[in-house]
Amino acid sequence: MATTKRKNPSGKRNRTATSAFTVPGLEAASAHELAEKLQLRLHALNDLQLTLKHAHWNVVGPKFIGVHTMLDPQVEGVRAMVDELAERMATMGVSPNGCPGDLVARRTWDDYPIGLAQAAEHLGALDIVYSGVIEDHRTLIEEAGDVDPVTEDMLIGQVAELEKYQWFVRAHLMDDEGNLATQEAQSAEDAAARGLAADAKID
Ligand SMILES: [Fe+2]
After folding, report:
1. How far is the CA of 56 from the centre of ligand 1 (A)?
2. N or C of the chain: less Cβ packing under 10 Å?
3. Could you list the residue range(s) of the whole structural domain that residue 110 is in?
4. CATH number of residue 193's parent domain
């Protein structure tokens, strides 16, 4: 009987490895330590690009088209960050792991909580998703600054883009007095509910 289970034709496990070298001018141990910390940022960005596509497919209601079409350029932008970050790891001598199983095993955040839902719900939840990724990127910027300004610069550039994408999301969640519907949200589910309530008030 045919099976859909994939087999690894080489018979080998997925492996990660650290090389004996790193980029010129850096001390190998500290550079590799930093590159290994990039692994969780790689997983976070891969998770983000999948989550954005999930929202792109599952947004419904009268505000569908604006949110549906807004999200694809964000997906493309985040996918470019994934590639940039993984290749920085490899350049520094640490093998990046792009496998979904490793992502799920190592992630420190919850899966995106909503499926088919109104635009305001997805926007509320995505605001919280973006906050998590941005905060953790900023934390690593602080650490990278002491080791490698090139990695620090890459992370700074990514955060600038991520914050712009979050502003696109947040602009939908603000009233004309500058209040953000998700400001006090405690979780993505809570933010989705607050987004929907604020949207109902505007309508
Ligand atoms: Fe699409």
Report:
1. 7
2. N
3. 28-202
4. 1.20.1260.10
